[in-house]
Structure prediction request, 227 residues.
Amino acid sequence: MRVLIIEDDPAIAANLYDFLEERGHVVDAAADGVTGLHLAVTGDFDAIVLDLGLPGMDGASLCRKLRDEARNDTPVLMLTARDTLEDKLEGFARGADDYVVKPFALKEVEARLVALGKRRAGKVAQRELAAGDLTLDPRTLAVRFRGNDVRLPPKCLRLLETLMAEPERVFSRKELETAVWGDTQGTSDTLRSHMYVLRRELVQAGGYDPIETLHGIGYRLASRGAA
Ligand code: CA
Prediction:
């Protein structure tokens, strides 16, 4: 993971930095709120460890600016020295995702960071795909075309998912074979027969075929619905 530590206590910052780096994470650090916010907005981090009490700008204000002004949703693990309910509530109200109370175990911080990173990756992967009149929910594998359910065999589903990930993009046969069957197993015949089933089911559900064949090149999924 790429982790940003924003902490003004040099000993705590150094401990966290060394521990996380030793565990294979890529770590950056800031010792005040203004530098921290700048790094958080300009860098590409998987998670941020944020101290509540900081010079320049306190952790709660930094978190609020990160969310409300910079529209940045990097997970934030808040560090707080004062174990009072009020502080915790303040941290969460301003957009922190989790917190640990000082003094903390380094392993616990890492475990919470990994959990935050996974939760975020899961959210990204589970976003519903949509192209024209088609929707596909990667969580439930439910496909709807013009509002009607489409029932597809697993390989056809994978084929549609690949096309839907980038509507309007031309996919070569080879690319689709690799995406659905892996490097070795697919043949043009299996792709053709699965494409046939996929299109037949789509036409049955929605009344038209949203997939275009580019002869000798490959296939493309329309990003626009029926007029
Ligand atoms: Ca502090």
